[in-house]
Amino acid sequence: MLRELREIVQRVTASSDLNEAMAELAQQTRQAMLVDCCSIYLRRDDEPGFLLAATDGLAPEAVGRARIPLGEGIVGLIGEKEELINLADAQHHPSFKYLPEAHEDEFRSFLGAPIIHQRKTLGVLVVQQKQVRLFEEGEESFLVTLAAQLATVIAHAEARGNLKSRNWHGMLRGLAGSPGVAIGKAWVWRPKVELDRVRARRADDLPVQHRRLDKVLHQVEEELDGMALRFKESQAGESMAVFEVYQYILKDPVFIGLIREEIEHGWTAGSAVKRVCEKQIAQFANMADPYLRERAADIRDLGQRLLTRLIHEDDGPLALSEPIILVADEISATLIAEIPRSKLMAIVSAKGSINSHAAILARAMGIPAVMGIDHSFELLEERQLVVDGYTGELLVEPAPSVLKEYRRVIVEEAQMDELFATVRQEASRTLDDVPVSLLLNAGLSADADIAMNDAADGVGLFRTEIPFMMRDRFPSEQEQVHSYRRVLTSYVGKPVCMRTLDVGGDKQLPYFPIVEENPFLGWRGIRLTLDHPEIFLVQLKAMLRASIGLDNLSIMLPMVGSLDEVRVARRLLDRAWREVSAETADEQGIIRYPSLGVMIEVPSLLYQLAELAPLVDFWSVGTNDLTQYLLAVDRNNGRVADIYDSLHPAVLRALQQIIDAARQHARPVSICGELAGDPIGVLVLMAMGYRRFSMNNSNIMRIKYIVRQSRTDELKKLLQEALSHQHVGAFKGIFGRYLEERGLGGLLRAGL
Questions:
Q1: 3-state DSSP: the chain helix, strand, coil percent, rounded to 5?
Q2: Arch. (CATH architecture) of 195-311
Q3: Residues ≥6 apart with Cβ < 8 Å to 533
Q4: Residue 357 bears catalytic tag
C-alpha cells in the first residue's frame, strides 16, 4: 500500500486550502483501505474539542457542525491517550458518544489514529465499517503511518487555509531575522521576472547578444552604485558593504566570462544569464552551512535583476503612499534598497534565514524581520500584521488588546535604542570595573560591519570562505592578500582573528567537489586543509603578507579534534612565516609571528585541553556547533530545533570546563557563537568567568549596555543559585530577573 500512501500525501499537499485537503484525504483513504467510511476530526485552538472537518461516509451536512468535547467519545479518548484504538463494535465501548447529526448508526467497527505534529495533537483520523470486525495489523500500520505523514501537511494546510477567512486572526511562526516590533499593513511583492520561469532560447546574432549583455551590465552596475550611495548617506551607512558583494559578482571576470561562453555556444543573453546563475544557485543551495547557503539568494537576485533589464524597460522607483510591511517569497538586499527607508516598517519572507542579506540589512537598519514563514502570501495582502523580530512570530489581524500591548512595546523599544546609543563611545566595563572585550563576527563584506563599527574592540571571527566560493578556481595568493589586507587595515590597533578555510562536504567548492553521506562529520575544516598543504600554505602566506606593518593578525583553526592536527598546522605556519619573512626582508615593515588558536567546537577537544594548552596561544568556543554536536541536534531542522538549547546543562558544564582549564593554563578564551550576543547568555558566561565575546554587529550596543549595568560578583552568586535548581529554565528565570531589575526586561521578548 506504499504507492497509495504516497499518492494520498501528494494529493493533500497539492490542495490549495484546508477544506479541500481534508475532503481529498477522506476520499482517498476510504478508497485505499476499502472501508465504508473515513472521517477527519480536527482540534482547533479557538474551540474546546474536536470538530468533524471532513468525511466520506457520514452525513455531509455534519461537516463543520458535529463536535466532540475534549475527554468525551472514542475520538476524544484517542486525543487524550495519543494512541491508536481498534474496536470491533464501537457502539459497545463505554466511551462511545452518539452524534445524531452524523448518521453513523450503521457503522460498527472503528479504527482511529491521532494526528500529532511537534507533540501537539492536531486531530484524529478515523475509518469505519458496517460489519463487526477488528481491523488487521496491516490496516493499523497503514493508518498510523498515514496520520504521521500527514501531520506536517495538515499543520501547514491549516495555517494557509485559515487565512482564507477575512475574520481569522492568529499567529504564524518563523525565524527571528532582526530584532524589533512593527505594526502595519502587508504589501506583497512579486518579481517581474523569475529565473526558473524564463525559457532558454537560442540565438544566431551573437554580437547583438554580447552588446545586450554589456548594456544591462552597465545599467545594473549603476543601479547598485546608486543603492550603495543612498545607504552611505543614510544612518545605515555600514550596510553599503552588502552591495559590494553584488558589485564584486557583477565585475568578476570569471562570472561574466561564463555568461559570454554560453552566448558563444548559441544562447541569447537572457538564456546565458539564466543557465550560469542556475548552476551557481544549485551549488550554494545544496550546502549545509546556513550562511553559505544564503549566497544562492544573492546570485538569484542578481540574475533576476539582469533578466528584468533584458526583458522589461525600467518602470522607475517603487511608488508607496504609506509605510508598509514588505512581504515576499524571497527578499533581497536590492529590493530593500528600492523602498524608501521612511516607508519600510518591517520585512516578512518565506525563504531565507538569519544569514540572508535581507536579515543582515534589516539588523543594520534597525528594521524588524521574520524569515521562513511558510504559507501563501497572497492571502496576507492588505491585512494588518504585527512583526515580532524577537520571537520570529507574525500576528495576523491581532485583537485590540494584543495591538495595545505591542504598541507599548514599540514605545519601549525606541526608549531602549536611545539608551543603548549613550554607551557607544564608552568603555566596555562592568560596574565593579571588570573589562570585557566585545568583538565582531564577520565574513568578507557580505556580513558587512567591517570598517564601519567603532564600537567594536576588533574582529573575533573573520570567515575566509567566500573568496574561495565565488570563483571557478582557488584564489591566488595575491587575491587573498587583497581581501585580508582590507579587513586588517580597517582595524588598525585592534585584533583581527581570521579563521582558516572551513570548507568541506557541506560547503563545496565548484572546482573541488566532495560527496559525502554525512558532511557534518566529514572531510571539512582543518581536516581538508591539512590533507592539502599546498592550499593551506598559500592562505597562511596571504594572511602574513596582508599583516605586514599592522601587527593585529591572529589565526584560528576550525574543526580541530586532535592534537596532531594542531602540531601539523603549527609546523606549516612556521614554514610560511619563515618563507614570507625571507621574501619580504627588504620591504618596509616586519611580519610579526601571529597568535595561533583553535575553535573549540568538536566535543573530543574538551578532554584534551591540558595537552592542547602548550600548543596554542588562545581558544575560541564556537557555541553553535559545540551545542549541536553535544546534543546531536541540527538547529536548522524544524522537527528537532526546539531541542537545541545553548543553556542545556551539558553545554553549560562544557563551557565551565573550558573556562576553568583556560584559567589553569593561562590561555585567553573567547566565545564566538550566538550565545555571546544573547542578553541572558552573556550574563551566564560572565558569571562563569568569560571576558571576550564575539558577535554580530546588531548585538554590540545592547550587550555593551548590559555589561556596563552588571556586576560580576553578583552574577557569580546568581550562577550558584541557578545551578542549585534541577530544571533547565532556572537560568532564564534567574538571570532574566536580573535584567528586569535593571530596566532591561524589554530584551526578554519570548514570554510576550
A1: 50, 15, 35
A2: Orthogonal Bundle (1.10)
A3: 572
A4: yes
Q: Do 252 and 276 contact (CB within 8 A), yes or no?
A: no
The pLDDT, as a whole number, for residue 631 is: 92
CATH number of 458-595: 3.20.20.60
pLDDT, mean over the chain: 84
The residue among 575, 605, 580 whose CA lies nearest residue 590 is 580
138 to 2, 33, 128, 632, 718: CA distances (angstroms) = 12, 10, 15, 33, 56
Whether the predicted pLDDT of 557 surpasses 90? yes
In this predicted structure, the answer to whether residue 247 has a pLDDT above a threshold of 90 is no
Other Cβ atoms less than 10 A from the Cβ of 708: the count is: 16
* 3-state secondary structure (DSSP) of residue 17: coil
Question: Does residue 711 contact residue 446 with C-beta atoms inside 8 Å?
Answer: no
Instruction: Evaluate if residue 654 carries a pLDDT over 70.
Output: yes
Q: Output the nine-digit C-alpha cell for 625.
A: 556547533
Are the C-beta atoms of 742 and 751 separated by less than 8 Å?
no
Q: Which CATH code of 3.40.50.2000, 3.40.1190.10, 3.60.9.10, 3.50.30.10 fits the domain covering 170-189+317-420?
A: 3.50.30.10
* Short-list 274, 273, 278, CA closest to 259: 273
At the second CATH level, the architecture of 423-441+623-671+673-752 is Alpha-Beta Barrel (3.20)
pLDDT at 522: 76
- CA-to-CA dists, residue 590 to 90, 431, 545, 546, 587, angstroms: 87, 40, 10, 11, 8
Active-site entry in 37, 38, 277, 672: 672
Strand-pair partners of 125:
40, 113
Average pLDDT over residues 228-255: 65
Q: Which of 37, 38, 277, 357 is catalytic?
A: 357
> What are the DSSP E strand ranges found in 2-73?
37-43, 49-56, 67-69
